[in-house]
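Per-record layout

source: Ditylenchus destructor
name: Sulfotransferase family domain-containing protein
length: 336
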Amino acid sequence: MMKYFVGISTCCFARRFCVTLVVLIIFTFLFYSRGGERNFLDCQKKYSQLSPFYQICLDSRFKAGFGQCLPPLKHFDAKFRITKRYRIGACVVEKNMSTIMAAIICFLHNEDAFLQANRTITNDPYKTRFCKNKNEFKNVKSMLNNTDTNLDDWTMIVIVRDPIERFLSGFVDKCINEAPIRNNGSVCYGCKGNLSCFVDRQFERARLYGQDARKSRAWTYEDVHFFPQNWHCNFQSILTKYHFLRYYNADDTLTNPNENWLTQLLSILERNQVPEESRRMIQKELLSSAKTAHSTVGQEDRFRVQREFEGSADLKKKLIQMFYFDYILFGFELPE
């Protein structure tokens, strides 16, 4: 148990979130033990004074004990990219700089081959990525089996993002910007850029998956981009093995130098003996191109969607119900 708490402390950026995270771990242990539902509710009541929004998932009428919020740590999609040379494994989550992180790990997988192929970290598109099927795994078990290693041999990293920022950015990117390109009436469930419509449809899909994944239909493109982050990456079994790199938006790469994800990443690369030349190349390229092709920062639709979200108490409540445990687990501050 102590090892569990020590490991989880690495993902906290403020004391209050460390406290909150420890509370969640207690919840998780109690919930999956005998009488877990009752114990979870008792603990949730005890700590609900941390913030008004911490009470949003408290509703004893629901069997799971999470109220109308989605449950934490469900088994869902996982995409691992590795560099065995430096023993770094990255789980990439859509809308969390996933293409960039995959390219960084691909570069470190074989620096010379990557450069000789005229690839760059900021221009290695997913569909034509250089490392396709070379250093990629769909679960941690296959990663370990294929490399003949143990999990303790690896430094595991993942970029996590403010949940609502991720959702709204994803909505603009996938449901508005990509709609003409995909040319499909079923894009984002046919909501045609209507945020409330899409939130309702996506929440219902996530709710059904959270209740029983076996009864859910096949994952959709939207599910992969909008389901909670804490359902990805085999978190349900290896949560404490990760170093969490917090990403807010494209501007974060250039601000808050002690907190941004790139600073954290470079520190990890140095500890894993990645050569200084390689680290400098990664840093230089990312700082010269902070935005990716999928970035929605500065777009008018992004401002419009943000205003709609901020002006709707119902939207805010439902999105917090969707991503409550992303906020708790990854140490982001809940909206007011």
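summary: The chain has three domains: 2-55, 80-162+231-288, 164-228+297-327. The chain has 15 helices and five strands.
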